[in-house]
Amino acid sequence: MVTSLLPSTQRALLRRLAVEQSENRVPSLIAGLVRDGETIWVDSRGKVGDEPATTDTQYRVGSITKTFVAVLVMRMRDEGLLDLAEPLDRFIPGTSIGDRSIGSLLSQSSGLTAEPAGQWWERTPGGSAEELLSGIDDSALRPTPRHGFHYSNVGFGVLGELVARIRGVPWYEAMQREILDPLGMKRTTLSPVAPHADGYGVHPWADVLLPEPAEDAGAMAPAGQLWSTFDDMARWAKFIGGDTGEVLHPDTVLEMRLPGSVDDGPQWRGGYGLGLQLLRHNNRRLAGHTGSMPGFLSTLWTDPEESTSAIFMANTTAGVNGTLLTDLLDTLGELEPRIPETWLPSPDVDMTLLELTGEWYWGPSPYVLKVRSNGLLDLVPGHGRRGRASRFKPNGDGTWTGLDGYHSGEILRIGRDTDGTPTYLDLNTFIFTRTPYAADAPVPGGVAGWRPAGS
């Protein structure tokens, strides 16, 4: 057990873990929390063989494998070897989804069937890439809108083959060289390496176990083959949160965390980015992935805003509640919330920017422009109102580029009068003025002028 938390917090977390393992009759279950890159609590219940699981015990992590495949694809994109908008046919011709983009496969919005042709791939020996691709005919397309969410294990089998064809080596060799070795993830493997848990099905009405198979999935391995440990998954959680160790630029990981499709209809709680599952919970925006293979369940969620992650792994086919990790995060947030850093005045603020700060109006709507200590401008709605907020970085020529929100990528220009005083902000035709609809500003400045009601 690793912890740096108060005894009362440890007990609350342990009780939640113990209830999960006991009530759902899980042979073994390990779970933990990571904050600011350090494991602050981890514990296990049940046994692997005759011993409790440790942070070095391997479990099969199922579809968390997809996140590694997605990183390999994004590395190739960043190297200029492919474009996410390109059709699959350019690299893998001859399937019924040749006109679908690589990006749609990553975001689970290609319309491709969930499972490959033939027997249940998770419980039978896998075939070759040629066999997988030959089964992707017109019957593999689903009637959902092509821009809509439809989870596809097959799609990640295809993406694994895409990696192999571009890199010239099997996807797992590329993963070892490009991801696992640089990040020091020595206990993440394609096949189990002791110490590891065996997978079981638990009888629904009796306390007996059924050993589950752990077949080599062949061409479908990129959808769910990997085995890993808590320690390695903690490193992977840091990666998804932005600590990428130069394997991928943090901005690319941020791109992967942006929603590409929504998977739960009108609730809009869950979604999918580029190879990452997304979840909104109690104002948290979580990214990671769930995992399920015969005999194993796992989940990894990370909250980049809070630099906090939660992980669990279990050797059971079914039974672990989907709320386990969010309950652990909620407990941590309630009992040991993050203590804000001490505020200190910044020694390196560009004082010439102060004339830009303060209240601006877009039409009648108030906004406030602030200078941040990191040299960014922050434009936010004023007076507690809702609206479009964005941060801006300087371009070196007097203009600024939006980093996030509605104005991401848009250019902010400063309008000035003859003596150089800032009089308006021009944000891609959105004009912000010092007073509502200032008469001397471009549209939507004082077009007709203010007037009393009835005049």
UniProtKB/TrEMBL annotation:
Keyword Hydrolase in annotation: yes
Gene Ontology MF terms in the entry: hydrolase activity
Name used for this protein in its record: Serine hydrolase domain-containing protein
Pfam families: Beta-lactamase (PF00144), DUF7586 (PF24491)
Gene3D superfamilies: DD-peptidase/beta-lactamase superfamily
Beta-lactamase-related domain boundaries: 17-319
InterPro entries membership: AmpC-like (IPR050491), Beta-lactam-related (IPR001466), Beta-lactam/transpept-like (IPR012338), DUF7586 (IPR056008)
Claim: Transmembrane is one of the keywords in the record: no
Entry keywords, A to Z: Hydrolase
Record-annotated DUF7586 domain positions: 350-434
